[in-house]
Specification:
The complex is a heterotrimer of chains A (276), B (437) and C (310). Chain A is mainly α and 276 residues long. In chain A, 75% of the residues lie in helices and 1% in strands. Chain A has a two-stranded antiparallel sheet. Chain B folds into two domains: 44-157 and 320-387, D-Maltodextrin-Binding Protein, domain 2 (3-Layer(aba) Sandwich); 158-319 and 401-434, D-Maltodextrin-Binding Protein, domain 2, CATH 3.40.190.10. In chain B, helix 8 packs parallel to helix 10 and helix 9 crosses helix 10 (238-254). Classes of the chains: A mainly alpha (276), B alpha/beta (437), C mainly alpha (310).
Chain lengths: 276, 437, 310
Amino acid sequence: MTRRRLHRVGYNAAAVLVLLVTVFPIYWMVATGFKRGPDILSFEPKWLPIPGTLENYRSAIAKPHFLQDVGNSLVVVVATVVISLALAFLAALAAARFHFRGRAALIVMLIVVQMVPLEALIIPIYLSLDRVGQTDQLAGIIVTYLTFVLPFSIWTLRGFIVNIPEELEEAAMVDGCTRAGAFRRILFPLVAPGLVATAVFSFILVWNDYLIAYVLLRSPEKQTLGIWLASFTTNHGTEWGGVMAGSTLFAIPAVLFFLLVQRRVVSGLTAGAVKG
Amino acid sequence: MFVPRRRRALATVALALALALVAAACGGSSGDGDKSSAQSGPRTMTIWLMTGSAPPAVVDAVNAEWKKAHPNDTVKVELQQWNNITTKLDAAFAGSSPPDVVELGNTLVAKYAAAGALQDLSGSRGEFENNQAWLQSLTESCTMESKLYCAPYYAGSRAVIYRKSMFDKAGISQPPASLDELQSDAEKLMSTFGSDKRFSAFYFPGKYWYAALPFVWDHGGDIAVQDGGQWRGTLDSAESQAGLTALKQLVDCCSRADKQGDELKQDQAFAQGHIAMIVANGWEKGVILDPKQGNPKLEKDLAAFPLPGRTGGQTAPVFLGGSDLGIAAKSKNQDLALDWVKQLSGTQFQTQMATVGGVIPNTTTLLNLHADDPYLSVFDATAKNSRFTPTSPNWANVEAANVLPDMLVSIFTERASIADATKEASSRITDVLNSGS
Amino acid sequence: MVRPATALAGRTTTRRRLAPLVPYALLAPALLVLAAVLGFPMYRLVGLSFQQYGLKELFAGHGTWIGLRNYQDILTDSFFWTVVARTIAFAAVCVGLTMGLGTLVALLLRNLGRPMRVLVTAGLVAAWAMPTLTAVSIWQWMFDFEFGVVNWVLTKLGFEGYSQHNWFDQPLQGFAVIILVVVWAALPFVAITLHAGLTQVPAELEEAARVDGAGAWQVFRHITFPVLKPIFLILATLSTIWDFKVFTQIWVMLNQRPSREYFLLGIWSYSESFGVTRYGKGAAIAVVMVLLLMALTFFYVRQMLKAVGP
């Protein structure tokens, strides 16, 4: 009896440690955003932001074009996620349910493409887009993000679809369904967790990006939030209060999105993975 | 031909999506059409300025003035961030529609000029106001192989910002007029305030090479010299080493700054109240007093003096920072761009840059604008005795390779002797400056 | 050859004639996008690696063909081998810690009571959702030379030397901090996924083994892990690819100016391309990086191909 109690205490202690390590940096970020300047840069850390100030948040939001940046980021993220899901689903269907020449090569290509460092491709991508007049256009950026998101999405969705037994579709087709109908009515709902998982990864990649947006966009009204966040560090030094306040704001949509879908993501990933 | 509707629909959707994407990619270039259209139509000109360089009011005024001469054309000013700017510039200049006018940090100009990105303005030099009185170092930064590739925009120089109350408490009545006096004053401050473990009399972050160069120059040394086409690093000369030795003496006794850090945090650190002197740009006072990051209460306590030289009464030559305005070689609006640059670099708006923006204007004739401001006039005075980095297109690579900061760090942390560290740095500089692309 | 579904036996021959086109039609949109925006630049990247391509060539639009010289320069440079070793070591440590600690946390989650488990999961999710730039900013601030919390705590604990300490002076310490940041951000994903996978492990088997006298490690090794293996492998492979490519964390933590002792392959490629504008050499380094990664993940890829079939 006491042995189990000891175990319980031990586990809870470990849990507290894990909690501390994961959550403290986040707390520190949020708290610093509320601190006044001298409190942020004091040699003795101030654990609680009291007295606090909203000045950091106010000036972060007051940065020129902030609302436009938010709008641009949302447009770009939503467009990329939706389009990539559609394209990836179709392609994954092909790779999972059909045999055709080049299938193995396709799958290898999808993995290899993920190994290429993004930074190395910036100038070639810029020049390609430049040729069709798509630099400094949100459409150009969306298409660029699509290419970085598609390989992983197709590969992941293919894994999910492969794990759903074809017999289910075949049964539906015996009952009179067409192949496409079977895809739509039987397969799609079962793959939903996989779609959610893929959507999350696409969201994170696009939301976090700085370098692509910075190089491809120039007009002040076309910037995204990644650039806005980076603007707190200038050659005049870093405005730490602003960085923390800005970072907090920047992280909120991502956190919200995650909290909403995290259970689906995980269940989907494990279902897809267990059967290999 | 009988094709079941569902499958046809699926394939059609797929095809339609593909076409839509291609159309979106190729079609929506409405914004960029103007620039390449026939010269008769209204034109749009793009200007890239760096954030924080010009006060918005000045930019608006320049645009308005320019509009008077070009009523049918539009000017678009886009502010860019300094971080990774070279990546962005590389991409933009390589593309088909770079910005027409671009503000370039003066150490970056040579690189882009040599690569053919900037328009040769030698023929138009005479059209720029004050072009005979431009600040020497800025003009140097714009000149490559005797050709002018940009117009000086504004300058920034460094001096020592100090706390008057601390000087008073330590019994120093006058700012030091020679290097020896600086040394002894710093030591006096250390003994007065040294019980505070965080106190620095002369706060000097290890990587602060802009502030280390004055010591080298003052003792007669230099970064590199050009010997008939070939560059030779000279940081290992006896004079350069003497300068660095003097600096090290100052840092050893009187600086508790991070020997491996850079100067980006020094203003905020200064505002914390444990520092007596920093080597700083004029605008850094604004950061020290900023309510969000600094301490506005210090306003009355701040003053500045030029970095003294070895010989009493002379100031040490300082590094002249600043920016220039270049015109892209590929620009299709050369005439519009030239007019705009002439405006911003001309007397009217340089005056505004100095009075409103607090920067050093590009011409010596305007250097008296801050005459009644005891603080800013110190910085203007130092600008008259200023030097620059080697005007080689490869200099930017030396900076990118961190040669100078690395050398300073190994000197201050005593990982290498001054002789060894400078020898290594010099040979690296010689290599990089002389390398083909 | 398209394999017709068994239930299609009674359909018309026309459909069977068009059937082969369907997979290609499904693939077309995605492949079109990839080919246009990724394919072309990648083709260009490989092309760049065979050229001498500096700033002048970039603006003129073409470079000088020098064949394999970039690759020769790289492979004969002793610095290259240092960087490769460093990158592999860095990735190995990151992956090892992420997978190891992730497994431990997953096991811990299984053994917690409901309220505690929800709390810890929430914490993990919050850390997981943190954008990279944000995470790096916080950690950089916490490890700051003068104002960082970590130095303050260490000083209070009695380590006097940490009162004003630059963590990036010694690359070993600096990399420790960077690895901490990378693992901190990557661990939640692994932990949560493995925890979900653990729910698929039949509890009766584990119980039976324990009753038979097996120790905790043996239970894990013979019962738990085999069930987890597929997920574990996928996570490990993904982690390897991602950790090998780490760039932002190092770049931003060292204020965009990492010294050569901090160079990993990705950073070196970027620095060659944009720092000293030797795009040809930078491209060659990137290509070598991809080849190396392919070699490292070879076994997993081969396993995948076997599962895919002909």
